[in-house]
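seq:
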Amino acid sequence: MITVNLDVMMAKRKMSLNTLSEKVGITVANLSILKNNKAKAVRFSTLDAICKALDCDVQDILNYEKEA
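struct:
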């Protein structure tokens, strides 16, 4: 299962959802869906923009855990 740790990186960078939304160019609603692990898919361009805005790597945001 893939989990999204966007809220952790946002907290580390002290960035609000509104600020990230402005920097990435994605609506707060769509970022919220991603942040709350409700997204079914995410574009590479979106991940790229988020990583640039938060100055992090993809593995800082996405985590893969094997299901038991």
